[in-house]
Amino acid sequence: MKLLRHIGSMVCVFGLFTTLFVGIPWYVIVADNPVIPWWLRMAIFCLFGGILLVLMTLVLEQKAHKTSVEESLSAEVDYNILLLNSDVIPGREISEILGLVQGHTVFAVWFGKDLSAIARLILGGELTEYTEMMGIARASATNRMATKAVKMGADAVINIRYMTTSVVGTAAELLVYGTAVKLS
What we know:
Elements: H1 2-29, H2 38-74, E1 82-83, E2 94-107, H3 111-123, H4 128-152, E3 156-168, E4 171-183
Parallel strand pairs: 1-3
Antiparallel strand pairs: 2-4, 3-4
Helix pairs in contact: 1-2
């Protein structure tokens, strides 16, 4: 899929540059003859065909990714690890600090959900599309952090913090980090 997406991107860029930097100047120079030559038609076909190929591969990748995310989130995560946002564990002692663990993800919603969120901005109410997006992002990032802590041999992750930033448009990065520790 990735290869098809890259091919589609290259074909689209080729079509775009040929159309803009060769086709339009040619058409301006030969404006009295409105017949569009075969190479310009092919460049326009490449432009739109490349866009279509990229969109189709992204839809297929998104569908596969969404299925895997839903499966991983629906499955109970039983790491046998304690996750806390405090730096002390009542009744337990920290025997060893293993180091910083983190997990992060960048999420965006589908354009259709963006449109419905814009309507909700005008009419008022909770932006459920973004609430759902951030919930999935938070669970995904937390799972990644916990997996890293388990690989380090940690019994707990303490002092967990979440941080979000806007990447572009309505895409948001969610970072979760904490300190992996061994308990006695």
